[in-house]
Amino acid sequence: MNSEEALRIIDDIANVIAVDIPENIELNGVVYPILREITSALNEGTFKKYQELYESLRDRIRNATDVPETLVKKALILRRALLFMKKYETEGELEDKKRWLNFVKKVGT
Questions:
Q1: Which residues lie across from 26 on neighbouring strands?
Q2: pLDDT score, position 45
Q3: How far apart are CA 99 and CA 2, in angstroms?
Q4: pLDDT of 68-81, one tens digit each?
Q5: Which of 29, 34, 49, 78 is deepest in the core (most CB within 10 A)?
Q6: Residue 43: strand, helix, or coil
């Protein structure tokens, strides 16, 4: 798909909400334990790391002529993770985070 179409998909909040956050995500040859990191006590470094990865991937998509669907899915996962981390940013909300992820998995199946 072209970059405009890919960015339109990524920017659609319905697509972001519909994607599951996997245990791990591979970006640029590095495997990140995304689910574990977003459900553990967050720190600013974790949020910043995933925000930088998302922005880098988005720039890569924006500059591509042909965007593979796998890149779009990874961008959606990162965006969903970022929104999730913003919502549940304090350690006291850890159990709420885990319950919410389990609920979303059940609803999605």
A1: 31
A2: 84
A3: 37
A4: 999 999 999 999 99
A5: 78
A6: coil
How far CA 78 is from CA of 1, 19, 92, 102, in Å, comes to 19, 10, 23, 18
Give the domain range for residue 67: 3-108
CA 15/CA 64 separation, integer angstroms:
21
Tokens representing residue 102 in the block: 């389990």
d(CA 65, CA 60) in angstroms, rounded, equals 10
| Count of the separate structural domains present in the chain | 1
Contact between 9 and 62 (Cβ < 8 Å): no
Helix (H) or strand (E) holding 32: strand 30-32
- Which residue type occupies 81? A
pLDDT tens-digit series, residues 25-66: 999 999 999 988 887 766 778 889 999 999 999 999 999 999
